[in-house]
Predict the 3D structure of the following.
Amino acid sequence: MPATPAWPPASTPRLFVDQPLHDAATLQLDGAQANYLGNVMRLKAGDPVRLFDDRTGEWLAEVTDTAKRHITLRITGQLRARETVPDLWLLFAPIKKGPIDWLVEKATELGAARLQPVITQRTIVDRLNLDRLRANMIEASEQCDRTALPELAAPAKLAALLKAWDPNRALIFADETGGLPFADVARPGPAAILIGPEGGFTPDERDAIRATPGAIGASLGPRILRAETAAAAALAAWMTLAGDWR
């Protein structure tokens, strides 16, 4: 007896839509999403599409109509509920365009719940295109099967963040002057990883971080890492030791 083909197929396109989804809903996509489905993927009536909305989970839809500038879909059922991700934040000093795009993409893939740009004394880049970063975050979520988008916060100054810090959230900062092994500081529960700018934190900033309740310095090994590499390494280490990779 022949095996029943998997449905939906692994090749089914997957998109984020910024509207609540529910069973039997009909929605119309236009712009870049319609172009992708209609002209790049060449979908036709009856073809499946996977959708997620960051609210209700992931849904299966089918194409009901295609036009030159838009495509119409009908929800046929829910595939899974919105996921729960570990309560891990990534705090990072803004860096140049290419590396920061990579950082946001990988932080999303690795499961960060919140991305918080932090302005430090040695931060070189003081303006961020949050719309571009959010687009990178959405694209990464589409590709890595996330159903819960990370929260993307507006840039904030380090001093203000430390002043308002919740002592119940562990603040693990990459301390280039030395720190405990990462395995000794990563514990389940609310946490944040703080990555400094190129050149690291100033001595005054490091003292202020260490004086913050819940803060602890961690070592990322014997080699000097670029800021974006340090962020990815720390996230992967935390997810392995205390997150959902266990």
Notes: The mean pLDDT is 94. The chain is about 30% helix and 25% strand. Residues 19 and 159 are 36 Å apart (CA to CA).
